[in-house]
Amino acid sequence: MSRIENISTNELVGQVQRITAMAELATRMNVGARMGMQYDGQRDIAKALGYPQTIQYNDLLAAYTRQDMAKAIIDRPVKSTWRGDFKIVETHRDDETQLESAWSDLYRKLHIKQNFLRVDKLACLGNYALLFLGFNDVNSPEELIRPVSAGVGRELLYLKPFGQNVIQIKEWEDDTSSPEYGMPLIYEVDIGEVSSKKSRTVSIHRSRIVHVAFDLLESEYEGAPVLEVVFN
Length: 232
Fold this sequence. Notes:
By secondary structure, the chain is of the alpha+beta class. It folds into 2 domains: about 1-50; about 55-230, no CATH class. The protein has 7 helices and 8 strands. It has helices at about 5, 10-35, 45-50, 55-65, 70-80, 100-110, 110-125, and strands spanning about 35-40, 45, 130-135, 155-160, 165-170, 185-190, 200-205, 210. A 3-stranded antiparallel beta sheet has the order 4-3-8, with helices on one face. Strands 5-6-7 form a 3-stranded antiparallel beta sheet. Helix 4 (about 55-65) packs across helix 5 (about 70-80). The protein is globular, with a radius of gyration of 21 Å.
């Protein structure tokens, strides 16, 4: 039996979605390559000025970390968005309700404001970023590929932002009856080794992830990097 006959529906859908994603990327790269051309392509302004034909994530990250204007373009709106503390207010009484108290504890314990700031900046730098939700339903990183299990005692222990440079989308949702159809299902993320600081990639189910992307156009999960339009 041929290899084509052995391909499952899930594999086929995954391959089609990967091809579509690559086609979208190629289109964007082609448009970018045409910018700065004059005289029917005889003069390449970008090349003459030393600008890259395609802008990679690491190019944007370098600009953010080394150029004051690039850093300000991202930092100022983000800091303005998350300025001050944010609370849940059920009543205007002086004593806290149970929900208000629970939120205050969670806000302090998970460093919510700081983590929201970080993932916001990372999403502005690339096409998207992830906020990983660390629940207490797993005993090892290998179990993160499973959906979050419901049950008594389920607790959110920590939050951790990740930038696009350490993320790969491994699988997409192929169930056409799902509201998440066509969206990432499994992510591969380099979480690193805490003790040795070496690379360590694990597969993570989308129920453990908050996917953050801005300025979406055709793609449902990839936005446009904020610095892309001002890079040159």
